[in-house]
């Protein structure tokens, strides 16, 4: 059996040397893992997040000798997305790779328990940042006739107790396939990783700051149980296992792959 990748793995490759890589939601979790791994592989980075904690990740990347720009912005707004792309263009002159990582279910419960505004909030969190950032980055990629976009989806497109999030990630899959079709002629590849359940350190920036009731904890456990049951490997993955797939699709190693959604969930196809 092969070793599981960890995001601390030292890379001997330099797939991103001389490439400008935007990572959204880079302050923690999978986004932080992508940022650190890309830094090890020589990327010039633009790290975007709503949380100021992203500055600490930028400092970690700088310790790895990466050039890094930080943008603190709300990517649920189009203006926030434009600010990130404008900063990348001002600092580095171009964008080679965009990793759209912002997202994550805010609530865990059966659909009939969601309030109207909660459904809207889930779509704003897990669909709009990717829609906005793709729209913001396209003109400069079309002009250069080059670019690679990786969207972070989820195997929750077939999962319980987070239906609005599932719908948002289904939207991510659709925009990935259609944007790839529309812009292959411009030299732009668009792919997605459908992330499975992923072990991560406790979140410094919570998705939902409210403490969970016993009922809400039971619903959350329902998600965990269903995720493990649906995966032939019956386990959660590591951040490194997600990062490996994301950076493969982002890199020139995937030069003949576009419009694909790659499930990374121990065999759960989503
Ligand atoms: N962790 C998992 O088990 C898992 C499973 C399937 C899919 N995913 C997907 O992977 C991605 C990353 O997940 P994670 O668990 O590492 O995320 P996380 O919740 O730990 O971190 C998300 C980051 O995005 C930032 N963010 C949130 N809203 C923002 C906004 N409006 N503007 C700017 N930044 C914002 C947060 O500050 C945070 O740093 C998400 O798209 C998620 O849906 C995660």
From TrEMBL:
InterPro entries: BenD, NAD(P)-bd_dom_sf, Sc_DH/Rdtase_CS, SDR_fam
CDD domains: DHB_DH-like_SDR_c (cd08937)
GO biological process per UniProt: fatty acid elongation
Pfam families reported for this sequence: adh_short (PF00106)
Transmembrane segments: none
Keyword tRNA processing belongs to the record: no
The enzyme's E.C. designation: 1.3.1.-, 1.3.1.25
Swiss-Prot/TrEMBL keywords: Oxidoreductase
UniProt key word Cell cycle: no
MF terms in GO: 1,6-dihydroxycyclohexa-2,4-diene-1-carboxylate dehydrogenase activity; oxidoreductase activity, acting on the CH-OH group of donors, NAD or NADP as acceptor
Enzyme class label: oxidoreductase
NCBIfam families: BenD, PRK12823.1
Family according to the record: Belongs to the short-chain dehydrogenases/reductases (SDR) family.
Protein name per UniProt: Dihydroxycyclohexadiene carboxylate dehydrogenase
Protein species of origin: Pseudoduganella umbonata
Lineage: Bacteria, Pseudomonadati, Pseudomonadota, Betaproteobacteria, Burkholderiales
